[in-house]
Amino acid sequence: MHMQRRIERHQLPYYLKVFNGVTDKPMGYLGNVSLEGLMLVSELPMLVNARFDLRLKIPGQDGVVHNIDFKALCHWSREDVNPGVYDSGFSLSEPPVEYAELVDVLRAYFSFHPLPTSA
Q1: What DSSP designation does 103 have?
Q2: How far apart are CA 12 and CA 62, in angstroms?
Q3: What are the structural domains, with CATH classification, of the chain?
Q4: Cα end-to-end distance, the chain, whole Å
Q5: Positive or negative torsion for Cα 82, 43, 45, 49
Q6: How many Cβ atoms from other residues are within 10 Å of residue 21's Cβ?
Q7: What is the pLDDT of residues 58-102, one digit of tens each?
Q8: What is the pTM of this model?
């Protein structure tokens, strides 16, 4: 029996890179995202029960890259169905306003909206 998730997540394979907030080196990509957390897709497993400083670099319409820095706790890390790829689940206890705005934008972008019906 398949259990449903408590938190709705939106899939984002290989669209947005996640960086180490201290070293600014790439860590992987957003796999999915919600207001409460995210899944990181990376080439290396993440340390479980460790808190990470993470950074998203979001290209703006003005051509300037905007950083969203936040802290996230890794709850699990396991090898993906694809060999050499790892999925890791993080929670965010106090996401910045910019992160919430990004989640809203991505939700709208990746959601399917029904076409209006004609009467």
Answers
A1: H
A2: 23
A3: 10-110 (2.40.10.220)
A4: 41
A5: negative
A6: 18
A7: 877 888 888 999 999 999 999 999 999 999 999 998 899 999 988
A8: 0.77
pLDDT in tens, 28-62: 999 888 999 999 999 999 999 999 999 999 877 88
Residue 46 CB burial class (10 angstroms; 0-12, 13-18, ≥19) = buried
CB count within 10 Å of CB 105 equals: 11
Residue 99 is given by DSSP the state H
Handedness of CA 68, 69, 71, 76 (dihedral sign): positive
Position 87, amino acid = D
Hey, which residues does 82 pair with through a beta bridge?
none
φ/ψ of 71, rounded to 5, equals: -105, 140
Residue 30 contacts residue 40 (beta carbons within 8 Å):
yes
